[in-house]
Specification:
By secondary structure, the chain is α/β, with parallel strands linked by helices. Helix content is about 45%, strand content about 15%. The protein has a 6-stranded mixed sheet with strand order 2-1-3-10-4-11, sandwiched between helices. Strands 8-5-9 form a 3-stranded antiparallel sheet. A two-stranded parallel sheet has the order 6-7. Helix 3 links the parallel strand 1 and strand 2.
Length: about 350
């Protein structure tokens, strides 16, 4: 009787069957592990626990009393109520929001650490700060917008001007004699003033501040003469006569102060500044979680008392999906890059 080559080599057929079964079992185990690795790596895409299950940390890149802080705190309070978990506001001012953004970019992508700040931190900083600590478009994920707003052009009452035309004429007669403040080099309000200066054709001295309270205090005392800043902060001082408002920066007149012309209407052609603020998280936040966070913020923005508060502050609530907001951020990033180059603004030292 003929024998197989395996039998001739002294290996019994049962051993063959056992080896074959073991190989099949090994291949099955490998396949199971291969399937399990992506599940572990991307398991956050479908969180098992409801969100949020613990307090959320909202990091603001500017000081208490700043425009960003004034917009974020009311939203954080109502978000705490809607989400059923406390939203803790954490002010980390400095470098026009770069410090706060870097902190958030390195946080766990679980939705419990977010950045609330002006669009300018994302769309302007990369063009004006030569040593950015992060790549904002790569390392941060736009989650939801909060609102958009124009600003006020104000001067100290000691200034002998009552219109934009008179201010420009005075600045041209005395080049560089007028100083203006901003919350930092390259911030949205800095660029809004620089673009006003460039479009109107005069020289002025920029005084950057790390603290918004100190900036406003210096304007109120007359240490600086001019500023373009948030209506949220400026309007109360205008109403008490401590500051004089000359114009607004938007495309249309403000509903809060309709008696004021826009800067363009006052004679400075092709001028418009409209800022916005939003919520951003670490880039690796899963899409499904970002959508859930967006839905929570959108719900807060639809509340009547929130909309009423924003209206009194010259802020229009913005409602967009996370992808729509991301697209807006990229377009604004490109727009400000072009404007900064055209205006010849220098990077921060």
């Amino acid at each position: 009787m003929r024998t197989s080559s395996i039998e001739r080599d002294g290996v019994r057929p049962r051993a063959v069957r056992t080896t074959a079964q073991g190989a099949r079992l090994a291949r099955a185990c490998v396949a199971m592990v291969a399937c399990a690795v992506p599940a572990a790596a991307f398991g956050q895409a479908t969180p098992a626990a409801p969100f949020p299950a613990k307090p959320i940390r909202m990091i603001i890149g500017f000081s208490p009393g700043s425009n960003s802080d004034s917009l974020a705190r009311p939203l954080a309070q109502r978000l705490s109520e809607v989400a059923g978990q406390q939203v803790l506001v954490d002010n980390r001012p400095g470098a026009a929001g770069n410090i706060a953004m870097e902190m958030v970019s390195k946080a766990a992508p679980d939705g419990y650490t977010v950045f609330s700040g002006p669009g300018s931190s994302i769309t302007v900083n990369p063009h004006i700060h030569p040593k950015m600590p992060i790549d904002v478009l790569r390392d941060l994920l736009p989650i939801a917008p909060m609102g958009q707003f124009s600003a006020l052009l104000v001067v100290h009452p000691s200034m002998p001007v009552k219109s934009v035309g008179e201010l420009v004429a005075l600045a041209k007669r005395k080049p560089g004699s007028i100083s203006f403040g901003s919350p930092g080099h390259g911030t949205g309000f800095h660029l809004a003033t620089e673009l006003f200066r460039v479009r109107a054709g005069f020289q002025a001295t920029h005084v950057p501040y790390a603290n918004a309270s100190a900036m406003v205090s210096d304007l109120l005392s007359g240490r600086i003469e001019m500023m373009i800043f948030s209506a949220i902060v400026m309007a109360p001082h205008v109403k008490t006569g401590k500051l004089r408002a000359l114009a607004t920066t938007g495309r249309e007149r403000s509903s809060v102060m309709p008696e004021l012309p826009t800067i363009a209407q006052a004679g400075v052609a092709d001028y418009e500044y409209t800022g916005f603020q939003g919520i951003f998280g670490p880039a690796a936040i899963p899409r499904e979680l970002a959508d859930r966070m967006n839905a929570l913020i959108t719900k807060v923005l639809s509340l009547p008392d929130v909309r009423e508060f924003y209206a009194t502050q010259n802020v229009d609530p913005m409602v967009m999906t996370a992808p729509e907001f991301a697209a807006k951020v990229r377009l604004e990033h490109e727009k400000w890059g072009r404007l900064i180059r055209d205006a010849g603004l220098k990077p921060a030292s």
